[in-house]
């Protein structure tokens, strides 16, 4: 005696439905792999340690000051320095000669 729900009594799956099932499975796997790739790239990018730009050799800062930040323009270099008393200033230097063009004192917050 065969049951009504046995596999022999079920109609066969149409070829288009089988193709659609494979297509959905492949697209799902592709989306999962793509998402994992994006996550891996973000993690790699955010954890990469960049060495940063090195100060040119001809640039010197005054004794007792430390460099906090450095940026470079077309023909100038800006250094943010801090002295022993905690005063910070921006020093604009000529990139070719290293001579100071301008100094801007940064007011400390009370």
Keywords:
110 residues, alpha+beta
Overview of this structure, please?
It is a single chain. The protein is of the alpha+beta class and 110 residues long. 30% of the residues lie in helices and 25% in strands. Strands 1-2-3-4 form a four-stranded antiparallel sheet, with no helix packed on it. Strand 1 and strand 2 form a beta hairpin. The termini are far apart.
- Report the C-alpha radius of gyration, rounded: 33 Å
- List low-confidence stretches: none
If helices are DSSP runs of H or I spanning 4 or more residues, what is the number of helices?
A: 1
Beta strands, count: 4
Task: Identify the overall geometry.
Answer: rod-shaped
DSSP strand (E) fraction? 25-35%
Biggest β-sheet: strands ordered side by side in the sheet = 1-2-3-4
Helix content range of the residues, please? 25-40%
Distance, first to last CA: 93 Å
Outline the biggest β-sheet. Answer: 4 strands, antiparallel
The SSE string, one letter per element, is HEEEE
Average per-residue pLDDT, rounded, comes to: 85
Output the structural class. alpha+beta
Write the layout of secondary structure elements.
Blueprint: H1 15-47, E1 66-72, E2 76-82, E3 88-94, E4 100-106
Antiparallel strand pairs: 1-2, 2-3, 3-4
